[in-house]
Design goal:
This protein is α/β, with parallel strands linked by helices. It has two domains: 2-128, Four Helix Bundle (Hemerythrin (Met), subunit A); 136-367, Rossmann fold (3-Layer(aba) Sandwich), CATH 3.40.50. It has 13 helices and 18 strands. It has helices at 40-48, 55-72, 76-87, 94-107, 112-151, 178-186, 203-215, 227-232, 258-267, 288-291, 300-303, 354-360, 362-367; strands at residues 2-3, 6-7, 11-13, 20-24, 33-37, 158-162, 191-196, 219-222, 238-241, 245-247, 252-255, 272-275, 281-282, 304-308, 314-318, 331-334, 342-345, 348-350. The longest helix has 40 residues, at 112-151. The structure holds 5-S-methyl-1-O-phosphono-5-thio-D-ribulose. The site of 5-S-methyl-1-O-phosphono-5-thio-D-ribulose has 17 residues, from helix 2 and strand 11. 5-S-methyl-1-O-phosphono-5-thio-D-ribulose is lined by residues 53-56, 93, 164, 166, 170-171, 176, 203, 242-244, 254-255, 330.
Length: 369
């Protein structure tokens, strides 16, 4: 992804033995900071406090966290401790568990002296895989956008609604839900994106909008409650969201509020798509609501809001009464029956069902991997 003339990934190594660089997403769009992660504790903080975020990106950051941990302590206790501490940072996105398991499987059999390099190399490998997966999601998803464009009067933009940030900044590059958007836009299809602000942390308003603006994609930020109204008035042609964990039969856990958008889309016959990289499938689960752990984040994310004042200073202000409690479930589950468009994977588009996923991923489905 280009910002100005510079092509960025969201995380990158700086040579073996050195810290790892990330884009710190906390203050976007008003401040763009690159910071270095030097220790296991840095990686834990970056994931837990959402300096980096988005299911694929926290998976890659987790493996770089293992590398940083093994630089300091490369024995079995160092590896196990890093695995446990990183796994505890965020519970919902399965990519973190998947990437850490992959790291432990690869690294545990190695001699202690070889472990840090192996973790460093694996993190880079998973990062490259993520980029290619997302590029392919874009190839398949672009076809969907182009088909909708072809069904509309010539020159009319395809209106796409998205929730949260399943963009470049949630992955290593491209994004998942945004990859089809970037590729269709770059290919000359006229499109416009409705960007849900995505309270409480506003990943849509601050991060997706930042990305789309940088890429020159026409977009409009809306409050989370506006989507249903726009759908009723024929102003949404399709919805594409990301996912943090998808069950083997196609139920999708994603940022809180996704479910409500899917209900509104269903009621208005607007096709609902989920961009799904295969590492986000939890083949061991079939009941999203009962089985997926939903992260409960700090009430402060609800009670306070951060932004830029007109004089350029940044401030965090409280928006609820001192006497009021706030609750902050960070994800919800959209049942497969509401995912009417399908699951856009790197291997093609699957129906949101066991059979749909089985067709594209027979070996993974069989192994429960
Ligand atoms: O809490 P966040 O910002 O990490 O939540 C991110 C999302 O919900 C994304 O939609 C999801 O991780 C998919 S990212 C490609």
């Amino acid at each position: 992804m280009k910002l100005g003339n510079h092509a960025y990934r969201t995380i990158w190594p700086d040579g073996f033995g050195n810290p790892v660089k990330i884009i710190d997403q906390r203050f976007l769009p008003h401040r763009f900071d690159v910071v270095a992660l030097d220790t296991l504790a840095d990686a834990e903080t970056a994931i837990r406090d959402m300096w980096v975020r988005g299911a694929p990106l926290i998976g890659v950051t987790g493996v770089y966290g293992v590398y940083l941990a093994l630089r300091a302590q490369n024995d079995d206790a160092g590896l196990t401790g890093a695995h446990e501490r990183l796994l505890a940072t965020r519970p919902t996105a399965v990519n973190l568990r998947w990437a850490l398991q992959r790291a432990v499987q690869k690294i545990a059999p190695l001699a202690a002296a070889d472990r840090a390099l192996a973790a460093y190399q694996l993190a880079a490998e998973i990062a490259d895989e993520d980029v290619e997966i997302n590029r392919m999601i874009g190839v398949h998803g672009r076809d969907v956008i182009e088909a909708i464009a072809a069904s509309k009067p010539a020159g009319e933009a395809v209106n796409i609604l998205t929730h949260c940030n399943a963009g470049w900044l949630a992955t290593v590059d491209w994004g998942t839900a945004t990859s089809p958007i970037y590729q269709a836009h770059d290919g000359g299809t006229s499109l416009h994106v409705w960007v849900d602000e995505t309270r409480p942390r506003n990943q849509g308003a601050s991060i997706t909008a930042f990305e789309l603006a940088n890429h020159g994609v026409p977009h409009t930020v809306i409050v989370d409650n506006a989507g249903g109204h726009l759908m009723q008035h024929g102003q949404v042609d399709m919805v594409i969201t990301g996912t943090d964990r998808t069950t083997a039969n196609g139920h999708v856990c994603n940022k809180i509020g996704t479910y409500l958008k899917a209900l509104a889309a269903f009621d208005n016959a607007v096709p609902f798509y989920v961009a799904l990289p295969s590492p986000t499938i939890d083949w061991s689960l079939t009941d999203g609501v009962a089985q997926i752990p939903i992260e409960e984040r700090s009430a402060r994310e609800v009670s306070h809001i951060w932004g830029r004042l007109d004089d350029g200073r940044h401030a965090e202000v409280k928006i609820i009464p001192d006497e009021s409690a706030a609750a902050n479930p960070a994800f919800d589950v959209t049942p497969a029956r509401l995912i009417t468009g399908g699951l856009i994977t790197e291997r093609g588009i699957a129906a949101a069902s066991s059979a749909g996923l089985q067709k594209l991923f027979p070996a993974e489905q069989r192994n429960g991997a």
